[in-house]
Amino acid sequence: MIVKMEKYIFLIFHQEYKEFLYKLRSLGVVHIGETQNPKDVAALQETIEARKELKATMRAVKSFQDMENITESPVAKTEHSMEEGLESLKEAQYLLQRRNELEQEFAAKQREVNDMTNWGDFDMSTIQKLRDNGYIIDFFSTTKSNFKEDWEDKYNAVVINNVRSNVYFITINKQGEDYLKPEADLIRMPNKSLSEFEAELNGIENLQVENIKSLCHFANNRLWELEEYDKQLESNFDFSNALIQAESQASETVKVLQGWVPEESVETLEQTLEAGGYFFKKMEIEEGDKIPVKLKNNAFARFFEPITEMFSLPNYTEIDPTPLFAPFFLLFFGLCFGDAGYGLLLLIAATIGKIKSDSKGTKNVCTLLQYLGGGALVIGLMVGTVFGVTLPYARKESFILNQDNLMTLSIIIGLIQILFGKFIAALKVKKQQGLKYSLSRFAWVLVLIAAGAALILPVLIAGISPTVIYICWGVAIAGLLVAFFYNSPGKNPLINVGAGLWNTYNMASGLLGDTLSYIRLFAIGLTSGILGSVFNSLAIDTTATAPWYIRFPLMLLILLIGHGLNMGLAIISSLVHPLRLTFVEFYKNNEFEGGGKPYSPFRIKK
Prior knowledge:
- The chain is an alpha+beta fold.
- It has helices at residues 17-27, 42-62, 82-117, 124-132, 151-154, 194-221, 223-245, 266-276, 305-311, 322-337, 340-356, 360-383, 403-433, 435-460, 466-485, 493-517, 519-541, 548-589; strands at residues 5-13, 31-32, 135-143, 157-163, 166-174, 185-187, 247-249, 254-262, 279-283, 292-293, 385-386, 389-390, 597-598.
- It folds into 3 domains: 5-93 and 213-293, no CATH class; 122-192, no CATH class; 388-589, no CATH class.
- Helices cover 62% and strands 11% of the residues.
- It holds the Pfam family V_ATPase_I.
C-alpha cells in the first residue's frame, strides 16, 4: 500500500534556518519539497560529480575484496572525518592508477622481452668490444622467402634464429671498407641483454603483486572508510540542498520551506517543532503537487517491492500494484520453472545465502528467492516433475495437471489476472475521479465475467438451469448499457455510444492478444521439463555399455552439466517472462501510470 502523506509549510526566521534544518534532520521524517533543481547549483553539482567519482573508485576497489578475509570495521566510524575520507579516496585512487601504470609497463616490457627472445641471450658488451675493434655489427630481420643463401658471402650475413616465417641475422663488416646492406629490415638493438630485460620484467611483476596485495588489504579492511566518506558527502549534499529549497519572503527575513511527512510520523514532528517554538502549518494537498511515494506492505509482498521499483513506483494517487501482482508472480515463476527439484535447489541456495550474508539488501533478495524457490517446489510437485523425471501419479491420463490441462490452466490464469487488472483500474479511477467516472470500467468487468459464465457454465455443468444462463446474459446486457451510455459522464449520449463502440473494439482485440501471451507459462515450463528428461536419457543411454566404474562418474558428470545448464536457463526464463507479463499485460489492463518519486526523508545517512 501507499503510505498517506501530509503536506506541511514551515516559516522560519532566516537567522534560525540552519538550526531548524539540524532539528529537522535529527527527526529524519520530512521529505523536503524541491523548488529548484540541485543540478543547477554549481556547488551541489560538484558534490554530485565527486560522489560519482567516489562510487566508481569504490566499485573498482570492491572487485579486490575477499569475503573470507574482511575484518570488522572500527566501531567509531562517525569519527572518521571528511578530510580523512578524502585522503583514503586519494590513496585508493593512487593504488588503482598505479595498477594501470604497472599493467602498461608490464605489457611494454613483455614486448621488449619477446623481441629480444628472437635473438637469444647474449652480452651486449661483447658486441660493443667488436665495434671498438673496428667492426660494424648490424642486426636485420626478413621473411624466409626474401632471405637468399648468397647473402652469407655477399653481405657477411650470419643467421641467428628462425622464428616462424621470419629470419633474424646479423652482418659483420670492417670499418673503412665499402660494403652493401641487404634488402631487409634494420633493427635498432637496445643496450641490454635478454636476461636484463627479463629481470626488469620480473621486477615489474613483483611490483604488481605488491600493488594487488595493497588493493586487497584496502578492500578487505578499509573499504568502510570510502563508504563512510560517501555518506558524509551525501549528508552534506542533502543539507546544502535543503538550504536552497526554501523561498525567501518578507525582505528575505523569513524562509518558507515545504515538506512531506508520513501520517504515522506527524505527531512526532509536531510535538518536536512545537517544543522548539517553530511555526508550521498543515496544508491541503493540491492537484499537481509532486507527492513522494512510500510503500508499506506485509511480510510477503514487501520482498516484491524491488520488482515494482524496477519499472517505476506508482504515483501517489494510484494503487500500489506490489501486493496485487506478487501472488501471480510467484505462481508464474513456478509454472515457468516447471520442476520441483530445481525449486528445491533454489530454495536451499537462497537459504544458505541468507544465513551467510550480513547485508540487509542481500538478505531481502535471498528471501524473495526463497519464496520463488518454495513456490517452484510446490508447483513442480503438483505437475509431477522432479529433475526431469515424471512422477508416477503424473503419468496417469486422468491427472488433472497433465500437459493439455496445463495449457488451458495458463489461459485461465491469464484471464483471471487480466480481469483482476481491469477491476483494479476501475478502483483507481474511482479513487482519483469519483464513482460515476469508474462505473463504465466496473461495467466492462461485469460484462466479461457474466458473458464468460453464460458460455462456460453449460459446458462445465450438464443440465444447468436455463434461468441461470438468462440471468448471466441479463447482467452482461445491463453492463453493456452502462459501458455504452455512461462511459463519459456529462457528455452527449451519442458521443458515449461512439466511445463505447471504440472501447468494445479495443477490448476484444486487446483481450485476445493479452490472453494468448499467457500460453508462454505452459510452453516454458514444458520446455524445462523436456530438457531435463533429455539430459537424463542422454546420461543413461550414452553410458549403457561402459563398465560401472566408468559409467557412474560419467553419468554424474552429464547430469551435473546438463541439469546445471537447464536450471540456469530456467531461472532466467522464469524471471524474464513473469516480469514481461507483469509489466506489459497486467500493467496495461490496470492502467498503471507510474512516475512516482520515492520518499527520501531529510536525515543523517547511516
